[in-house]
Amino acid sequence: MRSKLGVTAAGAVLALGLAACGGEGAGGSGGAGGDAAPEDLLVGVSMPTQTSERWIADGNSVQEQLEGAGYQVELQYANDDIPTQSQQIDQMITEGADLLIIAAIDGTALSSQLENAASNNIPVISYDRLIRDSENVDFYVSFDNFQVGVAQANALLAGLGVLDRNGERTDVAGPFNVELFAGSLDDNNAHFFYEGAMSVLQPLIDEGVLTVKSGQTAIEQIAILRWQQETAQRRMEDLLTSTYNDGSVVNGVLSPYDGLSRGIITALQNAGYGTPERPMPVITGQDAEIASVKLIADGTQNSTIFKDTRLLAEQAVVAAEAFLEGEEPEANDTTTYDNGVKVVPSYLLPVETVFADNIQSVLVDSGYWTQEEVASGQAQD
Ligand code: BGC
Q1: pLDDT (tens digit, 9 = 90+) per residue, 96-120?
Q2: Ligand 1, atom 6: closest residue by C-alpha
Q3: 321-376 tens-digit pLDDT
Q4: Which residue's CA is minimally distant from atom 10 of ligand 1?
Q5: Which domains does the chain have, with CATH numbers?
Q6: Distance (Å, rounded) from C-alpha 375 to C-alpha 66?
Q7: What's the CA-to-centroid distance between 65 and ligand 1, angstroms?
Q8: Are 293 and 299 in contact (CB under 8 A)?
Q9: Which of 88, 134, 143, 381 makes an SS bond possible with 76, Cβ 3.0 to 4.6 Å?
Q10: 303-322 average pLDDT score
């Protein structure tokens, strides 16, 4: 990998030029070299949306930790709008950013911004979602996304009783009616979650333990654009009217994200699920969003996958500091994340499945949510 932070004459001249046209840019003065003081360096942080709690938590953690290390930070949210994100990143470069941390809305849509960054010697850290089809991505910090899908599928099976809590097969043979949901096709993670889940579920579908009654199992058929809760609710409503209007019931739903799970739950409740006669299906999730943690505590949602955004932010900051000190960050995976042009060196964190009975030990004891927040389903400041 080429180092973008070597203090080259050309780089310094470019940076100065940019600072001149961009006004108060921090990076121009110090140059993006290893010997600049943190106070003289600006990190641009581009997050996709504020409609999901996790990205707000990510943004806040990254900002706090970078500022704690002395850096200047510009944090922007793009409202799930691709042109807004592109424009915000362009603006950060113009303002003299020395490094960019980007969680992309559409993993393929930022090529020209990244070219611009590369030609200004600005390292780019792809945050949680891999930026694809560009060689100008220097590092990737995320979770083990395939494992997220595996964990979701295992939680679904445990909820149905097909697996016991140790993950061993029981003699419960079904058949269970399940429906599958996936995330946004333009998010590289959605494909990893799906592949991970199907690695577990497909053999059981083949065996006849699980039946996808709608027949919709291809990712293109089950994907939810931009991870929108309303879109998931509508798809679940459509499935109920098209496929379960013959008295049959849904026993399980693979949902890759808590926001989607809440839409799915609303559709099911509107159709009379969640009563003693018609129990809620086993529904999975991801992100441990507070409204969903309460639904899990109440027994409405089965589980979620907890990804500690504080730790992810920490890894992003460790990688950022390495680049800004003129070094290469340490990767723990150099094979998995091929972005279509190159394998991006990555640092991947493990994930944890949360059921009703470990909310306390995983989420409350670690300080992620308080007991009051879990009880009310609302985050407090
Ligand atoms: C993230 C998930 C999140 C989803 C929707 C994915 O890229 O990895 O944690 O649930 O986006 O925001």
Answers
A1: 999 999 999 998 999 999 999 999 9
A2: 189
A3: 999 999 999 999 999 999 999 999 999 999 999 999 999 999 999 999 999 999 99
A4: 257
A5: 10-137+308-349 (3.40.50.2300), 145-306+356-362+369-376 (3.40.50.2300)
A6: 32
A7: 21
A8: no
A9: 88
A10: 97
